[in-house]
Amino acid sequence: MAASDSTATQIQANVVVRPFTASEQASPFESQPVCRPVLDAAPGNGATTVKVLDPSLKYKIKREFPLRGRVHWFPADGDREASPLPAASVESAVASTSAEMAKNVFEGFNATAVVMGHGKSGKSSILMGDIGSAAKDEALPEGPVPLEANAGLLPRFCNDLFTSLSSKPSNCKMAITVECVGFDDTHTITDMVSAKRAASSGTKHVDPEPLKVREEANGPAVAGTHKLPVSSAASMLDAVQHGYSRYRKFKARASTHLVFIIRCEETLTFADPSSPNEAITKKGYATAMFALVVGRPTAFFRCVDSAYQRDSGDNDKAKVPFREASLTRLLQDFFGGNTFPYSFACVGPHHVTAKDAVVVLEMAAKIEVIRTRPRISYDETTTEFRRLDDEVNTLSTELSAAKEAHEVIQEELSARQSKLDESRRIFQEQEGALTDLRDAKASEELLAAVRKARLARQHALQQQLEEDMREEIHTAEQRKDSLDQEIVELKSRLSASEAALAAAVAEAQGLKGREDNASDEVKRQERRHAEVAASKRGLGAVKEQVEHDFAARVGCKESEAADKRAEHQALRQRREEMSKPIRIAQMASDSLAALRKRVDDAKARKKALQDEAAKLPQEIADLEKEVEQMEKDAAPDPACCVAM
Q: Which of 62, 518, 541, 611, CA to CA, is 20 to 30 A from 561?
């Protein structure tokens, strides 16, 4: 727990809007087909406005309440899209508040959470929720207890508090007690955990005197209640669950407010600087209260109104009448005293509870204005002891770190000394190697001179060889050029002969065609003559009448046949004359064959020259090998060089 200055803190007011119940869903407003909520919300800049709608005026806005705190809207199953705000759950509504309350109590501050609302508005779900059987699990005596997802504010606070206590220093011991008390609207107080002790002892419990709220050094407390000590989250949950179950069975529960009081007594032990064998003990106290306010308690609402007038500036001298009822007297710090305040206002969306919702939301808006001034429970000497103890722990940690750093530095110095010795040894070895290198330098210079002479001789031989190769290559190229020129000439002559041969062949083909035409004509005339002779034999009777004409016609035909024969003879002579070019072409073909043979010979010679040119690199390589052999033969003996 750390000290802190007393500063004004405003109450964190949360609004919880539960979903419709099954009976509410079945009873919509008048002639409406479905049940429509009379509440709406609109997020704004730093505040959320909760609107109360009037169903009798077509759901127009009746009241608006801008709230700085968070508004948790629980949608009905399957109706998440119709929610004006992101869908909430019990965990999202209470988790951050329980963690903050546990942190404040652990640091030595008081914390008070008030859960209020009209009937069946979901107050119990926010305060207690679903604990399940976690508190009955005997296998979890230490540490946090696994809770259900719908566990409420108080069970989560139990887990968060003991989670924070796990990090307490070794000189700190914490004693925690749980009280569960019921209040009516006046001064009647009922101890809800007394039945547990009566049941455990087997005797009937009778309170010796009425319980009363008294002012004590650590704040208001209920005198005479049973305080159940707890040592783990599981035992605290067990105590809380028993008190709440007793409250659930209480006959006057509808008009009874429930308050859980969790008191933490911290014992700090410090070493006495003047007497090392003695110790100084300091104690600190912190109280967490969880109040379940039901209905419309007049005294509680009057206190809220007075605190609102005082802190809003309407009436700076307003006094909070917390002595009117035992509940308000126990919760007096909530209205502007020494505590971190938290509030949950639970409302329902049904039109039947609209008036109650307006009252609850109006109270929530007023509660947000109330300012409290929480202060730590330690005195100045305890705070100074804590500061000095923390400083000693810090210095001890720094000293341990410095010792570890010194050891690391010492190890590093030893490692560097070893490296320095190794470097000196390597330097001596390198110095000896340098002396050997200097002795070998003279031998290397002599060997370099021999190599230089050898390279000069090798270079001269290489130049002579290259010059001879260039001459041979030049001669081979000249021979190749002359052969290429001769081949070109032979190709031109061959092309001319082939053209003349083609012309002679074409002319011979023309003469042959004309001869074939003449032969066909002669054959046609002979067939016609045969037909005429047949006509003579078949027309003996007509022969006598047309003999003169026939004789004339026969003579004419014979003369034409003679002309045809003469022409045929002339064509034969012409054919013989045309055969002469063919013979000439045959001779040209023979000459062309001879030329082709010469071309083939030239190609063979060219190939031979190419083979010779291909052999030249091998000859050059052989010459280089001879040169290397000559250099090896001419090289001096290494032993002789070393001796020099």
A: 541
